[in-house]
């Protein structure tokens, strides 16, 4: 349902969305050796491995490039467009964040973060903008971050003006994780459909240097010593296919651990990749249209490659795939009872317009999980 607030938010997004689909005539038909940053020039989170914004097409991909022309419809690059945060002024970014508030109950505030906005780091990260946001929202107390989606992901960020409340919530989160209770729920568009349609992926992960990149890789037979030495981390993801069509799926993901890139890597173990994942989609290959996982040491980040049929569905050209952000959205945050609160608090945030547009193009249904956050 439309409200003046949602209309203002939509208007704000439209003001910063840019159609980046047109290449200059001098570049047409040629392999692009230099690609601007995907979303923004914001600094990386210290825990990050490979920033998707630094991915550039490799020369060898030229042979794989599929040029797709469509006479009907347009891609998300034109409608509704992809937000380019690097084009915003500091004040413009603060106003965008202020317009993206989805929850407000003292002392907590929930915002729907665009993909590409770092939480910490140098320059225009979210933490550096909090004093300006406090002013914009006319709050008397300073804001700090309680829980946040990763830089590359869109979705919820929970803020607070009370450190005591934050401590209660963090303790509640710790207890919930020990009991394997779900705290966060994501929705993702995947290329490939996980089988079976619901289950739990319990595969440990570790960081490994591959060439000049630090990648997160699975550890299939970890030892107690490897966990003790922190050479591997326990990682569990619950998943459920909510809808599937055209070889793609809308998937609900519920992490039961906090490990870098866990959701993306776990999905590749189901022979799927998140749409717009330009880091871990390269783990997968195909022979006679049957997907398989490549050896870990041979995988480096690259622009995601889609087959011609899927490109046509999305009205995309492979040359423009690097502009597509990862379709992984932190949609629901469940806060266990804390302090004097007797019941849990659920905060939701709807996927951004380009996400829902691609659902439509792929013939995927917005089911209850997606709809509930739209109505919140």
Structure described in brief:
With 376 residues, the chain is an alpha+beta fold. 23% of the residues lie in helices and 25% in strands. The strands form four sheets. Strands 3, 4, 5, 6, 7, 8, 11, 12, 13, 16 and 17 form an eleven-stranded mixed sheet that branches.
Helix/strand layout:
Elements: H1 4-16, E1 17-18, E2 82-83, H2 90-99, E3 101-105, E4 108-113, H3 126-136, E5 144-148, E6 154-160, H4 163-178, E7 184-191, E8 198-202, E9 204-210, E10 213-219, H5 224-228, E11 236-245, E12 248-255, H6 262-268, E13 273-274, E14 284-287, E15 290-293, H7 308-313, E16 328-335, E17 345-348, H8 353-361, H9 368-375
Parallel strand pairs: 6-16
Antiparallel strand pairs: 1-2, 3-4, 4-6, 5-6, 7-12, 7-13, 7-16, 8-11, 9-10, 11-12, 14-15, 16-17
């Amino acid at each position: 349902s439309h409200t003046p607030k949602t209309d203002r938010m939509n208007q704000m997004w439209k003001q910063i969305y840019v159609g980046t689909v047109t290449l200059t005539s001098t570049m047409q038909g040629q392999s692009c050796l230099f690609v601007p940053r995907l979303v923004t020039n914001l600094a990386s989170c210290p825990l990050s491995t490979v920033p998707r914004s630094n991915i550039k097409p490799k020369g060898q991909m030229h042979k794989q490039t599929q040029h797709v022309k469509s006479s009907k419809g347009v891609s998300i690059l034109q409608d509704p467009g992809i937000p380019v945060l690097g084009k915003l002024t500091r004040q413009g970014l603060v106003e965008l964040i202020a317009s993206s508030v989805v929850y407000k109950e003292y002392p907590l505030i929930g915002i729907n973060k665009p993909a590409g906005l770092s939480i910490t780091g140098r320059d225009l990260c979210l933490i550096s903008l909090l004093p300006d946001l406090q002013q914009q929202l006319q709050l008397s107390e300073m804001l700090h971050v309680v829980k946040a989606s990763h830089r590359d992901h869109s979705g919820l960020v929970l803020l607070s003006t009370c450190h005591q409340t934050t401590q209660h919530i963090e303790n509640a989160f710790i207890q919930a994780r020990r009991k394997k209770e779900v705290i966060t729920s994501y929705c993702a568009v995947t290329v490939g459909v996980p089988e079976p349609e619901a289950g739990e992926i319990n595969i440990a992960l570790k960081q490994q240097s591959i060439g000049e990149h630090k990648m997160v890789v699975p550890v299939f037979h970890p030892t107690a010593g490897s966990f003790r030495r922190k050479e591997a981390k326990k990682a569990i993801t619950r998943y459920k296919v909510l809808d599937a069509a055209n070889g793609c799926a809308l998937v609900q993901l519920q992490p039961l651990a906090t490990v870098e890139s866990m959701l993306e890597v776990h999905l590749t173990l189901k022979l799927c990749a998140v749409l717009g994942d330009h880091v871990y989609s390269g783990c997968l290959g195909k022979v006679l249209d049957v997907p398989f996982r490549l050896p870990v040491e041979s995988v480096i980040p690259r622009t995601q490659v889609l087959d011609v049929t899927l490109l046509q569905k999305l009205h995309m050209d492979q040359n423009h795939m690097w502009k597509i952000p990862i379709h992984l959205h932190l949609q629901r945050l469940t806060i266990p009872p804390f302090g004097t609160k007797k019941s849990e608090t659920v905060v939701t945030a709807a996927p951004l317009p380009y996400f829902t547009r691609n659902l439509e193009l792929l013939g995927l249904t917005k089911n209850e999980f997606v709809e509930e956050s739209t109505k919140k």
